[in-house]
Amino acid sequence: MKKSEFRGWTDVFRFTLVETWKNRSFLIFMIIMWVICFFAVPVLSLLTGDKKGKGDEEYNIENATLQKVYILDELGFTDAGFRSDIFKEKEVFKDVEVERVLYVAILNLEGEKDEKTYKDLCEKVNKEPNSAIIHIYADLTSGVAFDVVTAIESKVKDKECDYIGSLLVKEFDEFKYKITEMGEEQIAALDYKYEVVSLMEQDDGTFISEKPHISEAKYWVVYAILFVIMMIVTTSSSQVATAVAMDKSTKVMEYLLTSIRPMALVFGKVVASVVSTVLQLSVSLILAFVSNILTKQFTGSDYLKTKLPEGILSNLTLPNLLIALVGVACGVMFYGFVAGLCGAMVRKMEEMQESMSLLVILTIIGAYLGMFASMTMQKSLTNPLFYAAMFIPLSAPFLLPGVCVIGAGPLWIRLASLAILIVLDVIILFVSARVYEILIMYNGNKIKLKDLGKFLKQAKGGKTA
């Protein structure tokens, strides 16, 4: 590798970076993405946030409109010590009148339970807009149900009913252990989290523990990262191809090539695109986390923590993080070099869309191969498709970062995948630069995909235009 081949790449890098950030379409897209990242957490928290597990302050009830509660306990839990009026311990509900309704199970002629008691109670509540029913009964789906029922034209606020329901569920979690007469140690044992680990016998008769597949939650993490990487690759590679094609169509290359080698031009443009994209993504992630922190200050709820399964990122160690970041950079550079090739094949900007077909095809193949491999990871991490997708340079940029984040598979697979990407980046950089040098002044017939092989042979033979 000659230093002269890269002479001037820093000048190309700085120029391309400045021009990229001056581009109006890039700035508009960037600002829109940053705004979405900043406001996504509070908006989603407002639309999808629930009251489960939240503190009393989340309900923000200053004055209760509820005046009377009828308790209809079909299971007899109240007689066994269940505090169905636990809500009265809260200051806001201390003046609420509570009346327990005696439940009598009556079977009709078909042997089915008669709901007369409940229906009569509902009719009564319909005439009392400030009252509600706490209905405790057996449900085939959830086992035990706690319904807080109000009239159609009720004046009782929904959040009051939600609050009472949450208190009853919390009380039942403690009550179900009390009625079993278990000690504290037994109750604590039931709260432990268990994990099933399969043991595989080796040739020497020993056993090793292995997680042969990933969970559905980890699959969605890999899929989400894959989707983000696909957006990064698509955005950055299109920027490179457009920049190269525009330089060629405006004859800027005739002046640049007098002092800068094609290798430096390709390398500088691609690195500038990688830096722009990584900066854009980094700021987006930072804004999302800042938004989550600010949302937590106002609502008291960590939205991202509640939506991500516990321990999902426990394997995100520093080595895995570094491999993932380098893998993203190498993957973007790989597709960037291909994009430079596509841009060099353009004689005029009208041919840009047709020339980009090669890049689009390669991106689709790589993304779908990574997607199918991530699906197989839910069944086995030794599937041939998983290994193929990790080692094939088209799909590795999409799959490798997600695999590193969840820590799936042995470390050597991730290191080998990264090494292959680095080696191929160096090779395709040299090939792209040589073909770029041949095509940059080419003004003959329209170049088609089938002609690319001829130019690759010319580049290998050292021929120039």
Keywords:
four-stranded mixed beta sheet, 58% helix, two-stranded antiparallel sheet, alpha/beta, elongated, D-Maltodextrin-Binding Protein, domain 2, 6 strands, 16 helices, 465 residues, 2 domains
SSE layout and pairings?
Layout: H1 9-22, H2 24-48, E1 68-73, E2 97-100, H3 116-126, E3 131-139, E4 143-149, H4 158-178, H5 184-190, E5 198-201, E6 207-210, H6 216-249, H7 253-256, H8 262-299, H9 303-307, H10 318-344, H11 352-355, H12 357-376, H13 384-391, H14 396-406, H15 411-439, H16 452-461
Question: What's the oligomerization state?
Answer: single chain
Q: Into which percentage range does the β-strand content fall? A: 5-15%
Total domains? 2
Largest sheet: spatial strand order: 2-1-3-4
Backbone CA Rg: 32 Å
Query: What is the H/E order?
Result: HHEEHEEHHEEHHHHHHHHHHH
Residue share in helices?
55-70%
End-to-end Cα distance, whole Å, is 22 Å
**Number of DSSP helices?**
16
Mean pLDDT: 77
State the shape.
Answer: elongated
Structural class category:
alpha/beta
The low-pLDDT segments are 50-55, 194-198
Largest sheet: 4 strands, mixed
Number of strands: 6
